[in-house]
Amino acid sequence: MLPLFLLAVTVTGCSDDDGGSTSPAKQGTLTCKINGVARDFSYMVSANDKPSEEVVHFVTISGHEEDDFTSPGFGFQLVSEEGATTTTYTSADSELHGTYYIQNLDSNGNITGTTTYHGNGSDGTSFTMKVTTLNEWGVEGTFSGVLQLTGGEEYVTITDGVFSAPYNGN
Predict the structure, then answer these.
(1) 46: three-class secondary structure by DSSP
(2) What is d(CA 154, CA 156) in angstroms, rounded to the nearest whole number?
(3) Is 167:49 a contact under the CB 8 Å cutoff?
(4) Is residue 27 within 8 Å of 21, Cβ to Cβ?
(5) Where are the beta strands (DSSP E) in the chain?
(6) Which bin fits 92, alpha (ψ -120 to 50), beta or left (φ > 0)?
(7) pLDDT by residue (tens digit) across 66-100?
(8) 9, 27, 108, 113 - which has most CB atoms within 10 Å?
(9) Which residue, among 168, 125, 166, 167, has the nearest Cα to 23 in the 3D structure?
Protein backbone atom coordinates (compact mmCIF):
# COMPACT_ATOMS: atom_id res chain seq x y z
CA MET A 1 0.00 0.00 0.00
CA LEU A 2 2.82 2.45 0.87
CA PRO A 3 4.59 2.11 -2.53
CA LEU A 4 1.23 2.73 -4.22
CA PHE A 5 0.70 5.88 -2.13
CA LEU A 6 4.20 7.18 -2.92
CA LEU A 7 3.53 6.61 -6.62
CA ALA A 8 0.20 8.45 -6.32
CA VAL A 9 1.89 11.33 -4.49
CA THR A 10 4.57 11.63 -7.16
CA VAL A 11 2.11 11.43 -10.05
CA THR A 12 -0.43 13.81 -8.50
CA GLY A 13 2.38 16.27 -7.89
CA CYS A 14 2.57 16.84 -11.64
CA SER A 15 0.37 19.59 -12.99
CA ASP A 16 0.32 22.01 -15.86
CA ASP A 17 1.41 25.52 -14.95
CA ASP A 18 0.29 27.94 -17.59
CA GLY A 19 1.85 30.85 -15.72
CA GLY A 20 -1.62 32.35 -15.22
CA SER A 21 -2.52 33.19 -11.66
CA THR A 22 0.05 34.50 -9.23
CA SER A 23 -2.28 34.05 -6.26
CA PRO A 24 -0.64 31.76 -3.65
CA ALA A 25 -3.94 29.91 -3.20
CA LYS A 26 -4.19 29.27 -6.93
CA GLN A 27 -0.63 27.98 -7.02
CA GLY A 28 -1.24 25.72 -4.05
CA THR A 29 0.29 25.67 -0.59
CA LEU A 30 1.25 22.92 1.84
CA THR A 31 2.92 23.97 5.08
CA CYS A 32 3.30 22.49 8.57
CA LYS A 33 5.61 22.12 11.52
CA ILE A 34 7.52 18.87 11.98
CA ASN A 35 8.67 18.51 15.58
CA GLY A 36 8.14 22.27 15.98
CA VAL A 37 10.20 23.28 12.92
CA ALA A 38 8.31 25.13 10.18
CA ARG A 39 8.41 23.33 6.81
CA ASP A 40 7.11 24.46 3.43
CA PHE A 41 6.16 21.79 0.88
CA SER A 42 4.53 24.28 -1.50
CA TYR A 43 6.39 23.28 -4.66
CA MET A 44 4.46 21.11 -7.11
CA VAL A 45 1.42 21.08 -4.80
CA SER A 46 -1.66 19.45 -6.25
CA ALA A 47 -4.65 17.38 -5.41
CA ASN A 48 -5.81 14.35 -7.33
CA ASP A 49 -7.41 14.65 -10.76
CA LYS A 50 -10.68 16.56 -10.84
CA PRO A 51 -13.49 14.18 -9.83
CA SER A 52 -15.34 12.71 -12.80
CA GLU A 53 -18.57 12.31 -10.86
CA GLU A 54 -20.51 14.41 -8.36
CA VAL A 55 -19.40 12.39 -5.31
CA VAL A 56 -15.73 12.89 -4.36
CA HIS A 57 -14.51 9.46 -3.23
CA PHE A 58 -10.88 10.35 -2.55
CA VAL A 59 -8.69 13.33 -1.75
CA THR A 60 -4.95 13.11 -2.38
CA ILE A 61 -2.69 16.09 -1.58
CA SER A 62 1.07 16.30 -2.03
CA GLY A 63 3.94 18.76 -2.34
CA HIS A 64 7.72 19.11 -2.17
CA GLU A 65 10.15 21.50 -0.46
CA GLU A 66 11.82 22.42 -3.75
CA ASP A 67 10.90 22.36 -7.41
CA ASP A 68 12.54 18.94 -7.63
CA PHE A 69 11.07 15.46 -7.06
CA THR A 70 14.19 14.46 -5.11
CA SER A 71 13.48 17.08 -2.43
CA PRO A 72 11.63 16.06 0.75
CA GLY A 73 7.89 15.74 0.31
CA PHE A 74 4.70 15.49 2.27
CA GLY A 75 1.39 13.99 1.25
CA PHE A 76 -1.83 12.53 2.54
CA GLN A 77 -4.79 10.64 1.18
CA LEU A 78 -8.40 10.13 2.21
CA VAL A 79 -10.62 7.45 0.70
CA SER A 80 -14.33 7.82 1.44
CA GLU A 81 -17.02 5.46 0.15
CA GLU A 82 -19.70 7.89 1.33
CA GLY A 83 -18.04 10.85 -0.38
CA ALA A 84 -15.70 13.49 0.98
CA THR A 85 -17.20 16.70 2.31
CA THR A 86 -16.22 19.71 4.41
CA THR A 87 -15.67 18.07 7.79
CA THR A 88 -12.90 16.64 9.98
CA TYR A 89 -11.48 13.17 9.26
CA THR A 90 -9.15 11.12 11.46
CA SER A 91 -7.14 8.00 10.80
CA ALA A 92 -9.02 6.41 13.72
CA ASP A 93 -12.38 6.56 11.95
CA SER A 94 -11.52 7.00 8.24
CA GLU A 95 -9.27 5.53 5.59
CA LEU A 96 -6.82 8.43 5.98
CA HIS A 97 -3.04 8.38 6.08
CA GLY A 98 -0.22 10.90 5.95
CA THR A 99 3.34 10.46 4.72
CA TYR A 100 6.52 12.52 5.07
CA TYR A 101 9.33 11.25 2.88
CA ILE A 102 12.97 12.07 2.22
CA GLN A 103 14.76 10.76 -0.87
CA ASN A 104 18.18 9.26 -0.07
CA LEU A 105 20.64 10.33 -2.76
CA ASP A 106 24.09 9.10 -3.72
CA SER A 107 26.94 11.49 -4.58
CA ASN A 108 25.66 11.71 -8.18
CA GLY A 109 22.17 12.73 -7.11
CA ASN A 110 20.59 9.36 -7.88
CA ILE A 111 17.86 8.12 -5.58
CA THR A 112 19.09 5.12 -3.59
CA GLY A 113 16.09 4.77 -1.30
CA THR A 114 13.43 6.66 0.59
CA THR A 115 13.13 7.39 4.29
CA THR A 116 9.42 7.43 5.07
CA TYR A 117 7.34 8.43 8.07
CA HIS A 118 3.70 7.37 7.98
CA GLY A 119 0.59 7.89 10.05
CA ASN A 120 -2.50 5.78 9.55
CA GLY A 121 -3.78 5.18 13.07
CA SER A 122 -1.65 2.11 13.81
CA ASP A 123 1.37 1.65 16.08
CA GLY A 124 0.85 4.92 17.96
CA THR A 125 0.41 6.98 14.81
CA SER A 126 -2.44 9.30 13.95
CA PHE A 127 -3.49 11.72 11.25
CA THR A 128 -6.26 14.32 11.17
CA MET A 129 -7.42 16.36 8.19
CA LYS A 130 -10.10 19.05 8.25
CA VAL A 131 -11.49 19.85 4.81
CA THR A 132 -12.67 23.49 4.81
CA THR A 133 -13.23 23.91 1.06
CA LEU A 134 -14.02 21.29 -1.58
CA ASN A 135 -15.01 22.78 -4.94
CA GLU A 136 -14.32 22.78 -8.70
CA TRP A 137 -10.86 24.33 -8.19
CA GLY A 138 -9.58 21.87 -5.59
CA VAL A 139 -9.45 21.32 -1.85
CA GLU A 140 -8.31 23.34 1.17
CA GLY A 141 -7.98 22.65 4.87
CA THR A 142 -5.76 21.84 7.81
CA PHE A 143 -3.93 18.75 9.09
CA SER A 144 -1.89 17.34 11.97
CA GLY A 145 -0.67 14.01 13.25
CA VAL A 146 1.98 11.71 14.64
CA LEU A 147 3.99 9.78 12.03
CA GLN A 148 6.33 6.83 12.61
CA LEU A 149 9.54 6.00 10.77
CA THR A 150 8.73 3.02 8.57
CA GLY A 151 10.49 0.02 10.07
CA GLY A 152 11.69 2.01 13.07
CA GLU A 153 10.73 3.40 16.46
CA GLU A 154 11.20 7.13 15.74
CA TYR A 155 8.10 9.37 15.66
CA VAL A 156 7.60 12.92 14.36
CA THR A 157 4.79 15.25 15.36
CA ILE A 158 3.00 17.27 12.67
CA THR A 159 1.28 20.49 13.78
CA ASP A 160 -0.14 23.66 12.21
CA GLY A 161 -0.62 22.00 8.81
CA VAL A 162 -2.40 24.06 6.16
CA PHE A 163 -3.09 23.16 2.55
CA SER A 164 -4.66 24.67 -0.53
CA ALA A 165 -4.30 22.33 -3.50
CA PRO A 166 -5.72 22.64 -7.02
CA TYR A 167 -6.94 19.57 -8.84
CA ASN A 168 -4.57 18.46 -11.58
CA GLY A 169 -5.32 20.47 -14.71
CA ASN A 170 -6.47 23.60 -12.82
Answers:
(1) strand
(2) 7
(3) yes
(4) yes
(5) 29-34, 37-40, 43-47, 58-64, 73-79, 88-90, 95-105, 111-119, 126-134, 138-149, 155-166
(6) alpha
(7) 999 899 999 999 999 899 999 999 999 999 999 99
(8) 9
(9) 166
